[in-house]
Design brief:
single chain; alpha/beta; TIM Barrel; 32% helix; 20% strand; globular
């Protein structure tokens, strides 16, 4: 079964560090994070981009684009994701996967078969607040932990990232997250921005002072912790 992407950002300097990237957005998602910037893509998209058109664009941009970021939604829900990534890799591009970590088997397969070069995995919150933050009753915590453990103990390149929001994250949550991903290579705390495309509104960014405090807590168990967007 083929399912096409619903969005494309043809030029990004933000989604793959030190790379010029094209970002592809899938529609399906098993979460409904109220602060998601891609809310309209996840919930409202009704037009799809033929994958042949995407491949044609990537062929034209060879030498100008370094990488393709496969994002969403949750791209691991795409039934033909492996085949699509194979075709992108055949063109010589680096591939980064954005994921919520609920499909550890596919993340492992993609890395072990050299189909992806980098993973950015969202860590939504402490375990007790995961359902609230993800906007879902079933957050597949066992699967999420499996992906976390795989990445931490792997030789592959990855980052964990959390969009921190005043209404969702407090010091105790950050301390629990520090244990959840203990030993991780790198972690980013991302500034929340209330954009029009968010699923819900009315939340507030964490102050830089508090974000720095959160960073200090996480740095006790994580090798590299940085703020993004501050």
């Amino acid at each position: 079964m083929s399912v096409d992407f619903v969005g494309i950002d043809k030029f990004s300097l933000l989604d793959y560090e030190d790379k010029v990237a094209v970002v592809l957005f899938s529609k399906a998602c098993n979460f409904r994070c109220p602060f998601c910037h891609n809310g309209q893509t996840v919930l409202e998209a009704d037009t799809f981009i033929p994958f042949d058109d995407i491949l044609a664009y990537l062929r034209q941009r060879k030498g100008l684009i370094d990488a393709v970021v496969v994002s969403g939604g949750e791209p691991t829900l795409m039934p033909d994701l492996v085949e699509k990534i194979k075709q992108i890799k055949d063109l010589g591009y680096l591939v980064k996967l954005d994921t919520n970590g609920t499909n550890p088997e596919l993340v492992k397969y993609l890395f072990e078969n050299k189909l992806i070069d980098y993973v950015a995995m969202d860590i939504k919150n402490s375990e007790k607040k995961y359902p609230l933050t993800a906007g879902a009753k079933n957050v597949y915590m066992d699967k999420i932990k499996e992906t976390i453990n795989f990445l931490i103990n792997s030789p592959y390149e990855y980052e964990f990232r959390t969009t921190i929001i005043d209404e969702f994250h407090d010091e105790e949550d950050i301390k629990e997250m520090a244990q959840l991903i203990k030993g991780a290579k790198r972690m980013y705390l991302q500034k929340y921005v209330d954009r029009e495309s968010c699923i819900a509104h009315g939340f507030h960014e964490v102050s830089k002072e508090k974000a720095e405090h959160f960073k200090d807590i996480l740095s006790e168990t994580i090798h590299s912790v940085n703020l993004r967007g501050y």
